Amino acid sequence: MEYKITSKEFECFRTLIYEESGISLGQQKQSLLESRLSKRLREIGLETFSQYYDKVTRDPTQEEFTRMLDLISTNKTDFFRESKHFDFLREVILPELMPTKRIRIWSSACSTGEEPYTIAITLIDSVQNPKEWDFRILASDLSTRVLAKAASGIYDEERFRDMLPGMLSRHFLRGRGESMGLFKVKPHLTSMIRFRRLNLMDDEFPIRNPLDVIFCRNVMIYFDRPTQETLVNKFHHYLKPGGYLFIGHSESLQWISHPFMPVAPTIYQRKR
Ligand SMILES: C[S@@+](CC[C@H](N)C(=O)[O-])C[C@H]1O[C@@H](n2cnc3c(N)ncnc32)[C@H](O)[C@@H]1O
Asked: pLDDT tens digits, residue range 63-78?
């Protein structure tokens, strides 16, 4: 069966997606949405996009909404993606926090977990005596599906092709038998991270103590400028004076109004 989305249906989905997730789909994305969602309609035996819209909006658990978002946005990520951020964490931020030996980091669109685990590895591997430090990472995403994968901490061997063998064996357990080819994050990393579902569009975040660093990488690219501006100004509120915001390498804060100081490409600091 061929599925065709009408302009009116597209407009309904576009508005819903923008209002709930901040993701801004241009008019030219109609055929992309049609092809991505057609598969799902077929899978669950629906005949029209209007029927699917009803299903998505009537589901109080938002599970179907999450599934739909996973189909239209990308969860692509990697260990040590955009590695300069982790160098900065090791070389600049950790030395600054030496006196207190306490660090609070938020990976705010963590996808399947490679980003927060990379943060944890960087922290542990960069200090002399990790037991003396108080490391805490909040890792969040809108998608419960990616969060479940992140919390499981299990990854295919091919995800580690660029990781040094010593680092891999320090932080991951190699699967045997049925789990051959899989690696599982060791508990010393998982115990540093708390995973939870958070929507960056929420007015407030459940974060009580000011943060040292926020990672918000490769998600703002889906948001329009007003949405980016609101979000970046919210982040400012949750950071300590002197705290840092990392954004993706193809993202920029150049065209939005914000109080941050740029300190390196894609790294911003809240003024002290
Ligand atoms: C491309 S991944 C980025 C992963 C990681 N930060 C990185 O740079 O490798 C984008 C993630 O943003 C999430 N996302 C999209 N809209 C969101 C929102 N409104 N609130 C929280 N997460 C959102 C998606 O579910 C997806 O997992």
From this structure: 899 999 999 888 999 9
Segment 78-119, tens digit of pLDDT: 999 999 999 999 999 999 999 999 999 999 999 999 999 999
Question: Ligand 1 centroid to 126 CA: how many Å?
Answer: 27
- Identify whether 197 is a catalytic site residue: no
Active-site residue among 141, 212, 217, 270? Answer: 141
Strands in 126-265 per DSSP E: 134-141, 154-156, 172-174, 182-185, 193-197, 211-216, 239-247, 261-264
Q: Tell me how many helices (H) and strands (E) the chain has.
A: 11, 10
**What is the CATH number assigned to the segment(s) 84-269?**
3.40.50.150
Confidence (pLDDT) at 162: 85
Q: Is 14 an active-site residue?
A: no
Task: Tell me if 141 CB under 6 Å of ligand 1.
Answer: yes
Domain regions of the chain by residue span: 7-72, 84-269
pLDDT in tens, 146-198: 999 999 999 999 999 889 999 999 999 999 999 999 999 999 999 999 999 99
On whether the 7-72 domain is CATH 1.10.155.10, my answer is: yes
100 CA distance to ligand 1 centroid (A)? 31
Please give the biggest Cα pair distance in the chain.
65
For ligand 1, is residue 207 a contact (CB within 6 Å)? no
| Residue recorded with tokens 């069966």 | 1
**Cα(219) to centroid of ligand 1, in Å?**
5
